[in-house]
Here is the input.
Amino acid sequence: MKSKVVKLCLRSVMFLVAISLLSGTFACLQAEEINWGKELKNWEGRELRIIMIADPWVDAFAVINPEFEKLTGARVTVDAYPYDGTHEKQIMVGAGRSTDYDVIVLDCPWVGEFAEVGYVEDLTPYMKASNPEVVAWDDYLEAYKTVATWKGEITGMPFGAYHVLFHYRKDLFGEAGFTPPKTLEEWKKIAAYFTNNPKYPGLYGTALNYFRGAPIGQAWFEYIWNVGGKPFESNYPGSPDPYADMTPKINSPEGREVVQLFIDMVKYGPPGVTSYAWDERATAFAMGKIATVSCWSARTPLFVDPARSEITDKFATAVVPPKKGVKSVPPLGGWVMGINKFGVQKDLAWDYIKWFTSIPIHKKFMKAKPVGGPPSRYSAMLDPELNKMFPWYKSIYESAKLTYEDCRPRIPESFEIIDTIGLYTSKAVGGELTAEKAMEEAEKKIKSVLATGGYYIRE
Amino acid sequence: MRKREIKTTLLYVVLILITFLSISPLIWIFLTAFKIRREIFAIPPVWIPKLPTLNNFISIFTGGFSRTPFIYNSIIISLSTTLLAMVIATMAAYGFAKFRVPRSKDIEFWILSTRMMPPIAVVIPLFLLFRNVGLLDTKRGLIMVYIAFNLPFAIWMMSIFFRQLPREIEEAAVIDGCSTFSLLRYISLPLVAPGLAVVAIFTFYFTWNELLFALILTGRVAKTFPVSISEFRGVVNIRWGPMAASSIVHIAPVIVITFLLQKYIIAGLTLGAIKK
Amino acid sequence: MSKNARVIKYVFVLPAIIYLILLTIYPLIYSLKISVTTLNIARPYPPQYIGLSNFVELLKDSIFLTAMKNTFFLTVLSICAEFILGFIIARFFFMGANLKLKGVGLLRTIYMLPMMVTPLVFGLIWLYIFNPTLGVANYLLSLLGFPPISWFGSTNIALYSIVLINVWEWTPFMMLLCLAGLSTIPPELFEVARIDGAGWHQSIAFIELPLVRRVILIGLMIRIMDNFRLFDLVYVTTGGGPGSSTETLSMFTYRQSFMFFNVGYGAAASIIILILGIILAQILIKSVWGKEEYA
Here is the structure.
């Protein structure tokens, strides 16, 4: 036990040293304050409209945007929707050639879709014409640059990169003598221990993202890597072209294992867990109803907000556990800001994007109350002040080093593929189909979607 | 006599229980609308808000999540639809009721069938058509669609009312040299005024409540109140308090109309069933 | 008038007919046109003509077939429950009205309020009531000693939850129709029946039900069509899940057309729905009015 503590301390010290070294490198980027008067035009009387997801940090925009409004004279309006609704409205904006929105905030799996159908601008020329210190492209982690790019075009500027982190109640873990699980098997045991334990009335082990459609579909993609599988033949970390051979590997032993995991974990969840999605799980963890949760880092700040959380100082984070003998691939997600191809204020939109994603404003976005954004730049992730405020940045940085940028496909068909897997996984969890049958049908369906899209599939 | 009293009392109890049960979800959401966040999330539930607040209502009329423009859109769209649909439907119904129109039975039958059409069947082509002619996300466009979907019911109901009018009154007017339009305007219409009220209420009611067309044919400009309410649902942070307040604001006019005009509403609902 | 009338009657009738052709028939033709293509409005490639492939694919699509089954099940179950409950409740209100009880009219108006509320709002209210953690439904169950129910989260239960909400909202409609039907029965009939020594069940079976038959048919027709295109309630509560346990025809088409933007496939589905709808409507309208006397 003691040696573990020492090890932990040592690791923290090393991490802090690493931070100070690295932040030194990037400090030069922050050294001079940006002269916004020179960088931004006067947009007096204009209204800039943004369409995006209503994730926890959406309120932070209202906190930060007045600064942009003061600098440029433009008014900024944010319309935020639920996950599916965001995708739907954004495609409708493009399909309807609408000028309603100037900035379109895309989830990374949608990048290929919007780029190929041409509903967003290629940002490369905008970036080239701008002050490189403001854009600070090299300050982004490599993976975030990749997810924002499609076939050489930059579809959006990253500003809200997510990693799935493992969250656990350090108080309960301490009492029970657990350490953060290193494998899925350990996690299962821990979840079982806390479920219906007379010592902890009303407490459950964990809650997976069971809600049908995108929630459970993306969760399937979160686990497929961590049981040692891959969704498509040439879709794996280090692949030269992740979409060259799209032969689905969904109905594989690993694919079925993920479904089985979802089925097995229901019994460690609170009643009604099968209708939980991102928010319900985060609320359950924040209210102290579940002992562990693997969820996007964008929700971690909720757990320290005393207005919404009863466990503000009782939790810690770690890298998500993989199956025994498999290397952890912490899933990557998150949002990028693109410009509506049919918008009529593209320069205003770019001014906003470059301002919002710049190093100093990005840091303000992290710090905004009540819930700030997730770090997407080295400068923020390694910033000593932010690390002190948000201790989980350490887990984010560790996850970022292990992540795989194409862990969910980013092709135009992604939304339908993820939803389809979600539908069939949900059917298996509900007992409508067996895991085998569910993955068999999902694979058949996805094959036909891919065939329509003209992908290479081996028969 | 005693027996009758017991029977009366029992009947009252049963009727009140049934009524209470029926509207209990509405009462619950009404109470929720006045609760603070903590009380909304409390288990066991707080039945009556101890710290009643108007903040949920304030939040839907002011600030970043203001629903005011959408409420305004819904009012404009509902009233315009009602007015225009009434004009077109009254004329058509009068035409069918008073003149011999060739194949009128078949046409009326067809008109009534269009009422049965599932909206989802036409909303896809309407979206594509509206995109081509620039009617997407306009109040005009949505009003046009709503009129079309209210016409069948309105024509059907109105023609029932017109057919009930005694022929003699109109014939007398014709002898007096009345033109067809002034006949409709000054003689027939006033006589079917209650029928007009029924149809107008139902047109308004349909339009005020409609979701699917508005969801697909409007964006941020012409968005209606129901669409903005539907956005509370989603998987992220349902704001139950403002959701409850919006629900109350949306159903308040409907409830007021129901109480004020209950006679007409019940007539409208049961007319087709009782009278031919 | 006759000369004038020949022209003038078209002035009256034609606007409505032209309007309906423009906004219902024309879109349908357009729909037919895209239903034989691969049109997807979120893809760069142009749509291809594929004949009837979409329709063939649909009839093999297990989710579409499930949607059809669910819609059918939901319609039958809802309407049976609404009718039985509606009839029973109507008899109570009818008794109240016959006894000339004070306030019965007011109670009836209050009673019917749920059906005046849009299914969207009614569904949202139930989403809150059925919420697994903060919902009042599970709390009440726990008071009675029952375990919590996963109202929208379990494949076995979700469709019944939808039916429950649906019935809760629309029983008042059936009740009003039955009440109106009962009110048209001449009171003498009941007298005669009583004198002949008929029990209440005989009165129901031989007097009330036959005489309110027409009302029942109309109510059934309206509710069948409503359920057939049910969208709002499912959209706000389950979105068709979990699995495809609450997928309805409208929801399926909506998902294909506006979530995946497979507009061609969605249009094909909507045409199948329409054909089913037309057949159903014709059967119902004719069974209620007969071809000659529907208006």
Q: What stands out?
A: The mean pLDDT of chain B is 86. Chain B has two domains: 2-53, 66-274. Chain B has 14 helices and no strands.
